Amino acid sequence: MKPEEKARKKIDKLLGAAGWIVQEYRELNLGVGLGVAVGDFPLKTGFAKGNYTMSAYAWPLPNETDTLDNTLVYGRITVTISGDLNGDFTVDIYDAIILANHYNQHYP
Ligand SMILES: [Ca+2]
C-alpha cells in the first residue's frame, strides 16, 4: 500500500470517528446523512492539479441595500488529491494532524 493510501485510510477512519460518512464517488449517496465526505471525486478533464483563482458574484436580493460584499475576487481554490487538507499535493501525517485538530467540531 502506498503512503498516500495509508494516510487516506487513516484520515477516512478519523472522519468516520468524527461522525462523517465516508463514501467513494462511484457509490455516492448524499441522502445517507448530514456529513458526507467524498473520496476520489473526479475532476473534469483539462483541469490539472494546482492553485486556481476564482471570483463569484451574488445577485442582490430584493430590497438589499448593502451590496459591497456581493463580489468575491481572488478567492483561492486548490485542486489536489482527496485527503490533502493543507494543499501541498501530498496526503500525509500533516493532513491527519489538521483533521485531528478539528475532531468533533461542528459548524454552527
Ligand atoms: Ca497534504
Shape: globular
Strand order of the largest sheet: 1-2
Radius of gyration: 17 Å
The total domain count is 1
Structural class designation: alpha+beta
Strand content: 15-25%
Tell me the number of strands: 4
- Order of H and E elements: HEEEEH
Ends distance = 37 Å
Low-pLDDT runs: none
Mean pLDDT: 81
Largest sheet descriptor: 2 strands, parallel
Which molecules other than protein and nucleic acid are bound? calcium ion
Query: What is the tally of helical segments?
Result: 2
What can you tell me about this protein's structure?
With 108 residues, this protein is an alpha+beta fold. The protein has one domain. The chain has 2 helices and 4 strands. The chain has helices at residues 3-17, 93-101, and strands at residues 21-24, 36-39, 50-57, 71-79. It has a two-stranded parallel sheet. It has a two-stranded antiparallel ribbon with strand order 3-4. The chain is globular and about 55 Å long. The termini are far apart. The mean pLDDT is 81. Calcium ion (CA) binds next to helix 2. Calcium ion is lined by residues 84-86, 88, 90-92, 94-95.
Task: Provide tags for this entry.
23% strand, 4 strands, 108 residues, binds calcium ion, globular, two-stranded parallel sheet, two-stranded antiparallel sheet, alpha+beta
Blueprint of the fold:
Elements: H1 3-17, E1 21-24, E2 36-39, E3 50-57, E4 71-79, H2 93-101
Parallel strand pairs: 1-2
Antiparallel strand pairs: 3-4
Helix pairs in contact: 1-2
This protein binds calcium ion.
Calcium ion binds at residues 84-86, 88, 90-92, 94-95.
